[in-house]
Amino acid sequence: MVLLSGGLDSTTALAIARSHGYELHAMSFRYGQRHSVEIECASKVAKAADVRRHLIVDLDLRAVGGSALTDQIEVPKERSVEEIGSGIPTTYVPARNTIFLSFALAWAEVLGAEDIFIGVNALDYSGYPDCRPEYIEAFEKLAGLATKAGVEGTLRLRIHTPLIAMTKAEIIRTGLALGVDYSLTHSCYDPDAQGLACGRCDSCLLRLKGFAEAGATDPLSYARP
Fold first, then answer.
1. Is 94 within a domain?
2. SS (H, E, C) 25-69
3. What is the pTM of this model?
4. Over the stretch 122-154, which tens digit does the pLDDT of each residue have?
5. Residue 151 lies in a domain
6. Is 220 inside a domain boundary?
7. How many CB atoms lie within 10 A of CB 137?
8. 151 vs 73: CA distance, rounded Å
């Protein structure tokens, strides 16, 4: 069971799971984010990876708001690496990974799947509290307490975070070695009307920095070169 956003990190996590011989199921979310291009990318990635089933869940986090991705809040642009790494930015969606992992946990229990992969990263990331190792460890413990399968001991649910200690460059090199086609992915928080990445938000800047440090070329087109 892989949480698949259509972004660089989750696509690499999917490729890693595939390389380990797992039968793949993927879950994506249409949660009221600014754009639908990442869902389109997730579908392309899932098809390219021969995912057995790709489930797209609809939920509306705009009702909660509180984030530049789900509310009328400006997306930060052109910040330095130091600024990106300090504090929790306005693009943080309240409790998003907890919500997503809860859905993944439910589907994993139904499928009889013991392994959930999520592409969180604690190095080249934007300060999100739900990307830290201690958070993942706590959720895995919760999985054993909050499910019928966990209580009865029929499944030992594990949360896999293969990217958590990698730099963005290391993630990209890993994906390229596994044959990931990053032209299918999307990372931008605020693409234009044609779906082109802005090249200026935190996510675009971290992606571009990662490709540069990996000595590779980002195959995406950007609204701003």
1. yes
2. EEEEEECCCCCCHHHHHHHHHHHHCCCCEEEEEECCHHHCCCCCC
3. 0.94
4. 876 666 889 889 999 999 999 999 899 889 988
5. yes
6. no
7. 12
8. 42
